[in-house]
Amino acid sequence: MNAFILDDTINSRTNLGLRITQPPTIPMSEQLADTIEIDGREGTLKILKGWADITFTFKVATSSQTQWRDVLPQLIKAKRITFSNDNTVHFKIKQVKASGLTQLLSSLWESELTFVCAPFRYLNNVAILNRTSSGVVTNNGGVYSLPRIKVYGTGTRTLTINGKPIVLNLLQDSLIIDSELKECYHGNTAQNNYMTGDFPIFNVGNNQVTLGTGITKLEIEPRWRYL
């Protein structure tokens, strides 16, 4: 591992002049859970609360203090990071911290970067799934996903995923259901009041998707991910 890529386009070596000098150890996703002792039960009862953020730290070197000042804003505003040794997945960045520069040689300085990321690894280059009829969507990832689904149609219509109905009031030609953001919207306008039901997930394996009468098309951004 000698480089990282920010937002799919910014290479740390060729664009930022940064070289990884100490690679990170990236932890696995970790469940957050409470355990409860119950009289008469063998072992404790585990109640899943969610997933912990992934935090990893690594060191980079730069040959220019002036360039480093220009690099910092790009690090802070980046939304995703991919490493050169595995460009099939990316991490969603929540926060970036950088230490001060330590001079190693007359023209070489080193800094430590810490990235706080969402709990999972996300698969890169996943195609949008277009559906004009009911069928199965297969999640080959390692954990459930929170998709973004654009639903086309008019009127009050029902989309059913894994037996769970979602009733949508399609006043315009489409609505977007974003399970990650927990938002239903059209354009830039929130329209959660036009949706009844839970935000859908795609479990690992096969997921049955049923387009109710009047729904003409789905555009699914599946967001496959791994532990």
Describe the structure.
The protein has about 230 residues and is mostly beta strands. It folds into two domains: about 120 residues, Elongation Factor Tu (Ef-tu), domain 3 (Beta Barrel); about 100 residues, Jelly Rolls (Sandwich), CATH 2.60.120.860. Helix content is about 5%, strand content about 55%. It is built from one helix and 23 strands. Strands 1, 2, 3, 6, 7, 8, 9, 10, 11 and 23 form a ten-stranded antiparallel β-sheet that branches. The chain has a six-stranded antiparallel β-sheet with strand order 12-22-14-17-18-19, with no helix packed on it. Strands 13-21-15-16-20 form a five-stranded antiparallel β-sheet, with no helix packed on it. β1 and β2 form a beta hairpin. The two termini are about 20 Å apart. The mean pLDDT is about 95. This is Phage tail protein.
**Chain-averaged pLDDT:** 93
- Report the CATH topology name of the largest domain: Elongation Factor Tu (Ef-tu), domain 3
Number of domains: 2
Rg from C-alpha positions? Answer: 22 Å
Query: Which term fits the overall shape?
Result: globular
CATH architect. name of the largest domain: Beta Barrel
The CATH first-level class of the largest domain comes to: Mainly Beta
Give the tags.
Elongation Factor Tu (Ef-tu), domain 3; mainly beta; globular; Jelly Rolls; 227 residues; 54% strand; 6-stranded antiparallel sheet
